[in-house]
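User
Class, as today's exercise, I want you to study this protein, comparing sequence with structure tokens, and judge whether sequence predicts the tokens.
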Amino acid sequence: MAERMVGKQAPRFEMDAVLGNKEFGKVSLEENMKNDKWTVLFFYPMDFTFVCPTEITALSDRHDEFEDLDAEVIGVSTDTIHTHLAWINTDRKDNGLGDLKYSLAADTNHVVSREYGVLIEEEGVALRGLFIINPEGELQYAVVNHNNIGRDVDETLRVLQALQTGGLCPANWKPGQATL
């Protein structure tokens, strides 16, 4: 049986990544926590596919809104940093990503995908998992869906803002509305 993760300390990670400036570097939950940042960690199956670029670029296009909410966005697949960079260097009109404003991390050993419960072991790829972690390292939100369905950036931002209120947010709550 799966173990509950929400409300507990998130699994710590440090991964190689292609940073927003197209340089190779590292991303880590500890670094985000040290900088008092929220972490929006999302997993996707693989580079050079069809649904993935739609959500990866949509998140990048709205990156300023995440920054305004003191949140670091990190995308993760089991592909290498070299494949990530090749995809970033491919123009959007050619099913590439073009310039990204956040990091794409490489979970080539599958450890992080496994710890977050999104690894499809027999395929070696991740499901579409999205996790929001507060600056104290507590996993506040988790959603995992089938790989055929992309995620909604508006909903991710809404949930992040709801979590940041520290209050009770009713169904269909929108930023600016009262909490309970």
